Amino acid sequence: MSPKKKATPSEQKESKPPNALVEWLKTGVFVFVFYFIFTWLVAEAFFIPSGSMEGTLHEGTKLTADRILVAKGLVFKMMGIDRGDVIVFRSKESKPEAFWRRFILWRDDKPEMIVKRVVGLPGEHVSLKGGQLHINNEPVSDPDVFKEIQYIPDGHLRDNGVEVPPGHYLVLGDNSGNSRDGRHWGFLPQENTAGVAMFRFWPPLRIGPLTYQTPPKN
User: Fold this and answer.
1) Angle CA 183–189–193, to nearest 5
2) Is residue 127 flagged as an active site residue?
3) Which of 128-137, 165-174, 194-203 bottoms out in mean pLDDT, i.e. has the lowest?
4) What radius of gyration, in Å, describes the C-alpha atoms of the chain?
5) Which entry of 5, 6, 52, 141 is annotated as an active-site residue?
6) From the centroid of its chain, how far is CA 153?
7) Domain-by-domain residue ranges, the chain?
8) pLDDT tens profile 91-115
9) CATH 3.90.470.20 fits 18-204, yes or no
10) Closest by alpha carbon to 67, among 185, 160, 175, 198?
11) What are phi and psi of 43, to 5 degrees?
12) 4 catalytic residue (yes or no)
């Protein structure tokens, strides 16, 4: 019987079991990179902190409030913005955030993100008559949500309405009596938009599309 051949140094190196710590680090880096690429280019989850969209989105604590998945980045650019979309955007006072700051997970100075519904597109004349949205002096019934929402004329929309300038949108809250929106602070610059809400994924009993239901009267 011939003697057993000894493994070469290269063969011994290949046969060594992988280092558990190194494998964990590789996995962690992959998850970290995937998360930021996904939330930058595809979609991100958002928490609803206020009641200005009540009827469509419900406020509450971090445990009970609605959470929505928002299309961002390339997906958002491909979808575009249409009347009736529920969008997420930075407040007009905030400035675009440097890309590298996205990698800081825990910080207190994240830009304030707001959720409203798009009612007016660039170049359109928007007015509120009898609580109903009018575009270019015609009542809007498409999408159907505008048949249900009763808007309160206020601020810029108190009288004859406004014309949306190029590169801007007019956004309003569904809960018109409890929303500080385009009626008060004017038009939303396109560069402040961050994404379009696609569906609600929390809480479990309300998972699904963002449908509007008329809030019960007190």
Assistant:
1) 100
2) no
3) 194-203
4) 25
5) 52
6) 26
7) 18-204
8) 766 555 555 455 555 545 555 689 9
9) no
10) 198
11) -160, 160
12) no
